[in-house]
Amino acid sequence: MGDCTVELDLDGMAIGWLVAESATNGDSSSELVAALESAAAMRVLDSESPWAVARKAAVRDMLRHGSYKPTGRAKPASEYLLRTAVEGQVPVINVLADANNVVSLESLFPISIIDLDLAGVDRFVVRRGRAGESYVFNPSGQELGLQDLLLVAGLPQDSPLATPVKDSQATKTSPTTRRALGIVYAPSSLALDLKSATERLAGLLQKHAGAVVTWGVLPA
To answer: Which pTM does this prediction carry?
Structure first.
């Protein structure tokens, strides 16, 4: 993981992590756009299949904790992405975002991508949100309440930066992003699928962003 470390100490879940260095986050190639369109078309065909229904339920169960209920606007980002696919509205954004969306559509796992330079730290922990925690998640200043929600926080300040629902506006990637941390969230019962999804994302970023990528899963 180079100089970047991620800690996980939560029962019942696993994460895939990857660090992309020296990335070029420009417009996606026609090949990556085709992969995104293919993943979206595949999910449109089986959005209510037994596999998809079970996967959505497993991810929701992973998020359900304490006061947090993964319904309505609190649903995981993977479900929002699935809905955009069904509606024929999956956007083409840039390499990091599009590669993220390819893998999230294929796996139905939510994924966070954090700009490491904007984060200003290289140590992170995946934990549950505490009472009173929140962050702004879009340019208009809307806030996401984080109590009991899974989140990624930057250490040593322990500041929340991303969740499986919406990532913080403060550390979202842009065309200028060169270093990024990716986190794929999954129940521990789906660790093998998680490993495959993380490896898939690493490969897309190596090929299409020209990034030097290290990756792994936790628990190992």
So the answer is: 0.96
